[in-house]
Specification:
The complex is a heterodimer of chains A (115) and B (114). Chain A has no helices and eleven strands. Chain A is mostly beta strands and 115 residues long. In chain A, the strands form two sheets. In chain A, strands 2, 4, 5, 6, 9, 10 and 11 form a seven-stranded mixed β-sheet that branches. In chain A, strands 1-3-8-7 form a four-stranded antiparallel β-sheet, with no helix packed on it. In chain A, a hairpin with a 6-residue loop joins strand 4 and strand 5. By secondary structure, chain B is mainly beta. Chain B is 0% helix and 57% strand. Chain B is built from no helices and eleven strands. In chain B, strand 6 and strand 7 form a beta hairpin. Classes of the chains: A mainly beta (115), B mainly beta (114).
């Protein structure tokens, strides 16, 4: 295992629901990331946190709301999602960010289906 | 625009055979290139990482090559096993001043049959 866990592993929700995805890393890393992976498309970076502060938001719709309460936990709060938001949501962590050389360690992902 | 293109999109081979996956990129300036393996239902796991000064890097039966002049990389898998069935993702990192903004390819799906 990579040391990054995600829950739930699978989630089905209606467009009016509110749910949250959870990510936890046990590696002592300072940077955490949310990615969206759609079929046959490259991973899309959604949010980056470094030292518990958001450092990047790549034009993600406001129906996705991240939260980083401490350096080892990251949440993605979901509300009023659209069917096109169905995808695999991956969390990753790295020791730090900015050097460009660090490896990101990925969690297993949450498979989300929006009906 | 920074892009990473991978080919083929998918590949099916017999167990024991070798195969080579390709990655072309336009990322500039370039810092390093990684190959990740993503098993079905799992997150990507790093296989190799190469800086612009490295031409080849091995990890067991996986050998990655890099030609920074032509902006091409390949991942060669020797004596394939059923457990090699996965998606292989090429990831390029721009230079340090651009932080950790990785550019991902769409991946090559490899299926090894017995």
């Amino acid at each position: 295992e990579t040391g990054v866990t995600q829950t739930p592993r699978h989630l089905v929700m209606g467009m009016t629901n509110k749910k949250s995805l959870k990510c936890e890393q046990h590696l002592g890393h300072n940077a955490m990331y949310w990615y969206k992976q759609s079929a046959k498309k490259p991973l899309e970076l959604m949010f980056v946190y470094s030292l518990e502060e958001r450092v990047e938001n790549n034009s993600v719709p406001s129906r996705f709301s991240p939260e980083c309460p401490n350096s080892s936990h990251l949440f993605l709060h979901l509300h009023t999602l659209q069917p096109e938001d169905s995808a695999l949501y991956l969390c990753a962590s790295s020791q730090d960010m900015g050097s460009g050389i660090e490896t990101q360690y990925f969690g297993p992902g949450t498979r989300l289906l929006v009906l | 625009k920074n892009q990473v293109e991978q080919s083929p999109q998918s590949l099916i081979i017999l167990e024991g055979k070798n195969c080579t996956l390709q990655c072309n990129y336009t990322v500039s300036p370039f810092s390093n290139l990684r190959w990740y393996k993503q098993d079905t239902g799992r997150g990507p796991v790093s296989l190799t990482i190469m800086t612009f000064s490295e031409n080849t890097k091995s990890n067991g039966r996986y050998t990655a090559t890099l030609d920074a002049d032509t902006k091409q990389s390949s991942l060669h898998i020797t004596a394939s096993q059923l457990s090699d069935s996965a998606s292989y993702i090429c990831v390029v990192s721009p230079s340090m001043e651009y932080g950790n903004k990785l550019v991902f390819g769409a991946g090559t799906i490899l299926r090894v049959k017995s």
